[in-house]
C-alpha cells in the first residue's frame, strides 16, 4: 500500500535487453537482473517457480503474461504484477536490472511486497538488507519511508533483533520506533529523542537545529544523572496504554499461512503490543528531558559566548520572499512543492481495483474508504499550496467524517492562520468525534493537545476572531 510520488524514468543500458526485439519475455530480462535481486524474487510459474498462485503474492512474476515496450501508464497504490498492463510489467522487469535507479514508485512497492514475504523465511537477513538498500535510493517518498519502517520494526519484533531498527528513517515514524524499543526492553538515545522532539509536543527546536552537539551532550548528561544511562529506558510497568498491531503491508500475508517453496520461519503475522507512544508517563518524561536540556543548553551557550568560544552569528536581514496568490491573497508554496502535491493527487486517480482478489472483508472496506478519501485529501493539499484555500477547505470538509484526524488537522492549521479560532476549535472536536471509532484513521492523541492550544488562542484573541462556520459533508 502506498501513495506514490512519480519519478521521471531514467533510460539506461541493460545488457541483454533489447527494446527493438519483436517479442519480449521474462527470460529476456533474467540474465540482466543481479543475482542478489533474483534470489529475492517470487515466480508463480516457469522454471523458477517458488510460490503458488493461490498465495495471491502481488510481486509474483509469471512467464505467461505478455510484455510490451509501449510507454507505461503510472502505477497506483497496491500495485500487483498480475494486474499490471504489459507495458507496466516490462517497465518493472527492466527496473529490476538496476533497482537503485529512479522509477515509478509502484515498481519499488511491488518488489518491496515480495521482500516482506521473505522476512518470514530463512532469507530474512537478505530481505532486510535489500529493504535498507531501497530506503537508501528511494527515500524521498513518505509513503515508502513509512511502510519500510514498519517492515523493519516487524522484523525486529519477530527475531528479537534491535539492530534492524538502525535504518528507521531519521526524523520519521518516531512512534513506531518507540513501540518497538519498548517491546524489546530498549530505550531511546539522544539523537532519537531530538529527531522526534515535536512528536513529544516540544515545539522550540531552536537549539536542536542550531546547536545539536551542545544540546545532545546536555541531554545525555541529564539522562545519566536521572537514569544512570545515556539513554531513556522505556518503562515496562505501564498499563494505561492501548494495544496496537504491527503487521506487514503486503495484503496477501493477511491469511494465516505463508505458502512458498522457501523455508518458512515460524512466528505470528501480526504482533499485538502496547502502544508506548500513547503513554502519558512517557510523553511527560521525554517532554521534561527536552525542556531541561533546552534550558541547560541556553546556559551553556551563554557561558561559551562569554568566554569567546562562540562567534556570534551575523544577523541576516529578512527578505519578503513569500509568494502570494494574486487572486485569493493567500500564500503559495514553492513550485517544487506544488508539483509534488500535483503528482501525489494524480497518483490517486484512475486506479482500477479488483476486490475479488481479497478474502478479508476488512481489507475491502478499508480499500474503499481510501479510494474515497485520498483524492480529496491530496487535491485539497494541492489547492492549499496553490493559495486556493477556499477550494482546499471544500475538499477537506468532504472527508472529515471518514478521515477524522488527518483532514481535521489540515483544516485546523488553515483556520488558525485565517484567525478563525472558534472554527479551529470546532473542527478539532469534529476530528476527535469521527476518529473515536474509526478503524481506518484512528486517533493518535495529538488532537487533544491541539485542542488545548486552540482553546487558549481563542481566549486570547476573542476580539480578533473571524470564524464564519462550516458544514461537513
Describe the structure.
The chain has 18 helices and 6 strands. With 473 residues, the chain is mainly alpha-helical. A hairpin with a 6-residue loop joins strand 5 (323-324) and strand 6. InterPro entries: TerB_N (IPR025266), TPR-like_helical_dom_sf (IPR011990).
Quaternary structure type: single chain
Helix content: 40-55%
**Main sheet record:** 2 strands, antiparallel
What structural class should be given to the helix and strand makeup?
mainly alpha
Order of strands in the sheet with the most strands? 1-2
Uncertain segments of ≥5 residues (pLDDT<50)? 1-23, 255-263, 314-320
Distance between the termini: 27 Å
Q: How many strand units? A: 6
Enumerate how many helices there are, as a single number. 18
Order of helices and strands: HHHHHHHEHHHEEEHEEHHHHHHH
* Broad shape: globular
Give the averaged pLDDT, no decimals.
82
* Rg, alpha carbons: 25 Å
**Beta-strand content bin:** under 5%
Amino acid at each position: 500500500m502506498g501513495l506514490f510520488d512519480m519519478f521521471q524514468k531514467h533510460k539506461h543500458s541493460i545488457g541483454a535487453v533489447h527494446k527493438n526485439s519483436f517479442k519480449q519475455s521474462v527470460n529476456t530480462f533474467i540474465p540482466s537482473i543481479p543475482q542478489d535481486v533474483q534470489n529475492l524474487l517470487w515466480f508463480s510459474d516457469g522454471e523458477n517457480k517458488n510460490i503458488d498462485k493461490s498465495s495471491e503474492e502481488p510481486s509474483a512474476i509469471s512467464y505467461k503474461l505478455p510484455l510490451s515496450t509501449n510507454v507505461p501508464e503510472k502505477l497506483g497504490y497496491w500495485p500487483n504484477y498480475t494486474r499490471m498492463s504489459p507495458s507496466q510489467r516490462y517497465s518493472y522487469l527492466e527496473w529490476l536490472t538496476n533497482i537503485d535507479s529512479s522509477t515509478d514508485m509502484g515498481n519499488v512497492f511491488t518488489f518491496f511486497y515480495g521482500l516482506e514475504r521473505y522476512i518470514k523465511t530463512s532469507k530474512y537477513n537478505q530481505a532486510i538488507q535489500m529493504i535498507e538498500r531501497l530506503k537508501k535510493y528511494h527515500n524521498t517518498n513518505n509513503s515508502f519511508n513509512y511502510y519500510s519502517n514498519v517492515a523493519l520494526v516487524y522484523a525486529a519484533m519477530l527475531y528479537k533483533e534491535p539492530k534492524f531498527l538502525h535504518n528507521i528513517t531519521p526524523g520519521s515514524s518516531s512512534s513506531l520506533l518507540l513501540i518497538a524499543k519498548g517491546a524489546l526492553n530498549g530505550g531511546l538515545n539522544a539523537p532519537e529523542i531530538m529527531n522526534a522532539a515535536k512528536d513529544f509536543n516540544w515545539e522550540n527546536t531552536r537549539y536542536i537545529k542550531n546547536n545539536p552537539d551542545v544540546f545532545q551532550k546536555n541531554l545525555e548528561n541529564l539522562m545519566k544523572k536521572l537514569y544512570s544511562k545515556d539513554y531513556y529506558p522505556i518503562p515496562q510497568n505501564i498499563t494505561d496504554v492501548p494495544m496496537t498491531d504491527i503487521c506487514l503491508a503486503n495484503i496477501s500475508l493477511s491469511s494465516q499461512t505463508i505458502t512458498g517453496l522457501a523455508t518458512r520461519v515460524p512466528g505470528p503475522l501480526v504482533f499485538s503490543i502496547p502502544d508506548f507512544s500513547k503513554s502519558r508517563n512517557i510523553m511527560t518524561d521525554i517532554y521534561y528531558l527536552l525542556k531541561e536540556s533546552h534550558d541547560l543548553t541556553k546556559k551553556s551557550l551563554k557561558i561559551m559566548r562569554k568566554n569567546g568560544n562562540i562567534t556570534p552569528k551575523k544577523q541576516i536581514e529578512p527578505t519578503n520572499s513569500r509568494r502570494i496568490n494574486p487572486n485569493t491573497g493567500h500564500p503559495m508554496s514553492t513550485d517544487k512543492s506544488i508539483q509534488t502535491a500535483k503528482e501525489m493527487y494524480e497518483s490517486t486517480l484512475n486506479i482500477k481495483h479488483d476486490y475479488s482478489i481479497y478474502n478479508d472483508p476488512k481489507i475491502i472496506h478499508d480499500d474503499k474508504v481510501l479510494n474515497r478519501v485520498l483524492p480529496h485529501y491530496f487535491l485539497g493539499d494541492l489547492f492549499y499550496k496553490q493559495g486556493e484555500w477556499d477550494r482546499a477547505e471544500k475538499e477537506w470538509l468532504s472527508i472529515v467524517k471518514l478521515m477524522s484526524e488527518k483532514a481535521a488537522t489540515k483544516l485546523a492549521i488553515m483556520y488558525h492562520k485565517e484567525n478563525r479560532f472558534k472554527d479551529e476549535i470546532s473542527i478539532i472536536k469534529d476530528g476527535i468525534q469521527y476518529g473515536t471509532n474509526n478503524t481506518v484513521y484512528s486517533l493518535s492523541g495529538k488532537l487533544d493537545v491541539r485542542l488545548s492550544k486552540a482553546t487558549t488562542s481563542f481566549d486570547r484573541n476573542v476580539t480578533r476572531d473571524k470564524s464564519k462556520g462550516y458544514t461537513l459533508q
